[in-house]
Amino acid sequence: MENSTYPPYFNLTMFVNIGNYRYPTFVLCFLLYTFIILGNLLIIVVISREKALHEPMYIFIMCLSINSLYGSAAFFLRFLRDLLSDTHLISRSGCFTQIYVIYTYASYELTILGIMAYDRYVAVCQPLRYHTKITSKVVSKLIAVAWIYPAFSVAACVYLASRLPLCGNKIPKVFCSNWPVVKLSCVTTVINNLVGMFVSTSTVFLPLAFVLYTYVRIFLVCRKSSSEFKGRVIQSCLPHIITFVNYSITVFCDVALSRINLEELNPFLAIALSLEFVVIPPIVNPLVYGLKLPEIRTHVNRLFKR
After folding, report:
1. Checking phi first, is residue 19 left (phi over 0); if not, alpha (psi -120 to 50) or beta?
2. What pLDDT does residue 66 have?
3. Beta bridge pairs of residue 12
4. Residue 72 in contact with residue 103, Cβ under 8 Å?
5. In Å, how far are 28, 36, 212, 288 from 31, measured between CA atoms?
6. Longest Cα pair distance anywhere in the chain, in angstroms?
7. Model pLDDT for residues 287-300, shown as the tens digit of each residue
């Protein structure tokens, strides 16, 4: 009874048998992961080394890069191994650990984007009060809240899911996810649904709504300002807007996939859509901030010249 209700392994069923194509696929994914590591490490090193970049906006960008390394490690290290394997079993403890890391990664991304939006809002709408409102102590508190709250809220969801007796062990994804595990439950999941809804609202929808609100306010200020002021605002806010839109789309894809029967989709399309969530943002972030912000680009060039 213990093994049937609390299976020691989960089976990731979305992996498609691609025969010898697994090797070029492995190389491609390995190169993507290498780029994610090098690109985000470059952002972290440049911002930490250059005192001129020790400002709130760049500290938040560094937090995004750290989070990209954290989330991509939880996915790629297991995924690369599975690409070369004929079986795709993952231990119970390994599965719930992966769920926790990937879900906290997703929550951190949104909470960090939320505090970045607040930083841009104060810089544009209240420029004279910026240095009194966005102090180093305030930045530390904002980052602490952005890290601590998701860590505990996601832990509650994962703990509740781990306590459920299950009537199966098949997860129709290429990585472990909370909702597919909850759907395997042999008992009612009302508590899990309520807690999951609360956590989703507080870590996903509220940050998204706050970012939208701040940019509406910024747009209203820019509408009455000079073209020179608008240009500076666009240069400052565009990377954040690109990151926000990109991440919103990937989150939407993941939420939509969790609510439909993936077995009815084309397997390659289902895999591509599910991979967006953990692959695209870590790739896009260093490109956007490394290429779009001239301050970071300048210091990157200096670092390579040295």
Report:
1. left
2. 93
3. 171
4. no
5. 5, 9, 34, 19
6. 71
7. 887 666 667 767 66
Q: What is the pLDDT of residues 124-144, one digit of tens each?
A: 888 888 888 888 899 999 999
Per-residue pLDDT averaged across 150-162, rounded? 92
- How far is C-alpha 37 from the geometric centre of its chain's CA atoms? 15
What is the rounded average pLDDT of the residues 170-186?
Answer: 86
What is the residue type of 42? L
